[in-house]
Request: fold
Amino acid sequence: MYGMRRLIEIIENDELIGGARVHRRILSVSDLHVPFQLPTETFEEYVGKVDILQLNGDITDCQAISKFPKAYRISPMEEIIKTREYLIDLITYISPKKVVVTFGNHDIRFQSYLSKNLDTDLLELMPKTSLELIIVDGFNHYDKRKGTKIHYSPLCEVIDGVEIDYVDNWHCQIGDTIFCHPFAFSSGMMKTAEKAMQWFRNEGYRFENLVMSHTHRVGKYVVGNTTLYEQGCCCDTKAMNYSDGRLVNSQKEGFLYLCQDYDGKVIKDKTQLVCLN
Reply:
């Protein structure tokens, strides 16, 4: 009975594509940097073809509370509301079965700013990132000028039929693949990904693929039996204009569409590393 049930689950959940049995399709999107995010239509080709939408950090930009100079800014509240609206549109548009969210260095700016400006006792009332408010807890907007309060329910309550998992970490593992958004950065091509691989190996993780965001680069590199991906960013790099005049390589917009078999192993010829510019 158990064997028959497992067989039925495999037949119902797997898709036979080009002779390879695809069990899990993952669309990994990172570095949206709301309000600089690319339109949802960017992922039109993958609508209805995604089992897991993996959001790999830097969902929000947190530009107003950044330590870096800025010519203009929007308030953190406006940015949080815009991020929530975009995620609802993105999840509804792609229609995955599950969403897995990790945070990045821009998301964690939320806690860094609060730690610098709030007393420790008040800090205990606040989350680590704004993603917790958007996805798990919900939040209120107290408009002092208008004297109004608007409640925004968390995404886990708003979107029906989709499991949303906020892992509260900068990395997660699905099958034999680690998805991560490290805070370290190396100027050499793929060096950050290689450093991340070494760190995870030293920490005892077992994996054969590593998908890394943060660098705003697109690349693939094989080290022994491990394949490293730098997945690019999904924001309008021209609008961000962070590196203008600094004589650094241009940022690359992109994402990863990754297919796994029933054992969680990546099917290489069905996996697409997409570069948009």
